[in-house]
Amino acid sequence: MSAVGTVEGLEVWFGPRRAVAVPRLELQPGELLVLVGRSGSGKTTLLRSFNRLNECFPGCQTKGSVRLRFGGGWCPLYDPGIPVTDLRRRVGMVFQTPNVLPTTIERNLALPLRQVLGVPKAEVSGRLAQALAEAGLWDEVKDRLSAPALSLSGGQQQRLCLARALVLEPEYLLLDEPTAALDFRAAGRVEDLLLKLKARHTMIAVSHSLGQARRLADRVAVFREGELARVLRREEIDDRAAFAAALEEAF
Amino acid sequence: MRRATAVTAWCWASALVTLGGVGVLVGFLVLRGGKALGPGLLFGSQPLWQALTGRVPVWDGIWPAVAGTGALVLLAGSLAVPVGIGAGLHLAEFARGRWKRVAGFAVDLLAGIPSIVMGLFGFALILFLRRTVAPTANASLLLAAGCIALLVLPYLIRTTQGAIEALPPSLRLAGASLGLTPWQNLVHVLVPAASRSLSGGVVLALGRAAEDTAVILLTGAVAQAGVPRALTEQFEALPFSIYYLSTEYRNPAELERAFATALVLLAVTGGLLLSARALRAAARRGREAGEPS
């Protein structure tokens, strides 16, 4: 299968510190690539280089190229003419701790729909219902859409964040330890959702849980001290002993 | 354990002292001026409705001062609030490096200017205008409002900047990751999230505008001017009336009126606080009714 994303000679610097270096990495369509490695090994920085969110931090400098396929064509993400806001719409992101907007459940989705996609008012309720259903949250919130989003449980908040990303109909999803702040059960629900969503979105996820990586990943990219050390294929992930050995080496 | 008890006791004592202070102050004012409260204090011997609508002039009541202070606060607020909030947002979101330091220092400098100096500035400005482009320029409501606006500007800027900068970075990142432009993120995510602190800053500034005496003393407040009718005319104001009555009273009744006037000023600033709260609650209800703007 031909790749839908390529990273070549990527280096991200924050001031004098190099946060991550990835000589070469390809994304396959519809795969879930899981990034693992110790804290500070550059996983999140690589993740954020796919929606150029590193630029929201002071002193960030990105070298090399990251390209993603949108529709039929390739988009070099770091070309000067690329509209960053449109890129971020097409590459959705869910963060480690649920970061719902401090407003109502409904407005969490209506705001990006209206402001980013420019969806007419009449269409908002239908589309947000669909996104909430995709995130497995509709039945729990349909009767209290005007309740504050912060009144939801942690797991529900995280699924709301997922719905908020999905409502913009992204082609890619970036997940930064999406279950790290959740209890076992809520984490399981989010994992199930991700497996379901894989059919329509190419996903990149950071995970600290090797068990989770094994359950979810099509491939696992192992990071060590700010560099991509190696990429494990599904066969290597399935072979428990080989997987453990490969990770042992990396950690 | 003992230290914890001491800290708790200290906190309780501080809270009680504050509460006690307010209680004693209000109690003293009520005791000294309570008897003078009533329609007569506001409108003198004039019929209430006609005085209220401005059809008859009020000479022996403080209604013109109430109206003057209202006009002053409204005018100063409409000058200072947009500029103050805008500058605060700029400092919090867009200003960087050296420029941010320089601009921030200027704001602190402005905050450090005593109000009497601000009054002198307004006074000097009038003298300058008279000698140059506008020979008929005079101390007026507009001049006083302008100087008051300058006086309260730093409060607005700093509270706005502080409120926005205190928001968790994750919120800023959430908006950006959704594809909101920095401007949309500011207007639709950050400002609503900080609205409580922002309205707090506005109320503080308006309260300060209502109570300041030194500035208006030199820039347009007089003892007898009637209800304000034009921006270019002199006006009456509550703090100035209190000052005037309490220094120039001729009998105990007039001193009593000074205390009663202080109570009225307290009620005006208290009313400002309550109406700001009500506005905020209404705004929140509007947002929560699911009306995405």
What can you see in these coordinates?
The complex is a heterodimer of chains A (251) and B (293). Chain A has 251 residues and is α/β, with parallel strands linked by helices. Chain A contains 10 helices and 10 strands. In chain A, a hairpin with a 2-residue loop joins β1 and β2. In chain A, α4 crosses α6 and α6 runs parallel beside α7. Chain A is globular, with a radius of gyration of 18 Å. Chain B has 293 residues and is mainly alpha-helical. In chain B, α4 packs across α12. The N and C termini of chain B lie far apart (52 Å).
> Unreliable stretches of chain B, pLDDT < 50, 5 or more residues?
none
Main-sheet strand order of chain A equals: 6-7-8-3-9-10
Structural class of chain A: alpha/beta
Order of helices and strands of chain A: EEEHEEHEHHHHEHEHEEHH
Keywords:
heterodimer; A: 251 residues; alpha/beta; 6-stranded mixed sheet; B: 293 residues; mainly alpha; 13 helices
What topology does this entry show?
The complex is a heterodimer of chains A (about 250) and B (about 290).
Chain A lengths: L4 E10 L2 E11 L4 E6 L5 H7 L10 E11 L2 E4 L7 H7 E4 L10 H13 L3 H14 L3 H4 L12 H13 L5 E5 L7 H14 L4 E5 L3 H7 L2 E6 L2 E6 L1 H5 L1 H11 L1
Parallel strand pairs in A: 3-8, 3-9, 6-7, 7-8
Antiparallel strand pairs in A: 1-2, 1-4, 4-5, 9-10
Chain B lengths: L1 H32 L5 H5 L4 H5 L10 H32 L2 H15 L3 H17 L9 H25 L3 H9 L4 H12 L1 H17 L2 H6 L18 H11 L3 H37 L5
Helix pairs in contact in B: 1-13, 4-7, 4-10, 4-12, 5-7, 6-7, 7-10, 8-9, 10-13, 12-13
Give a short synopsis of this structure.
The complex is a heterodimer of chains A (251) and B (293). Chain A has 251 residues and is of the alpha/beta class.
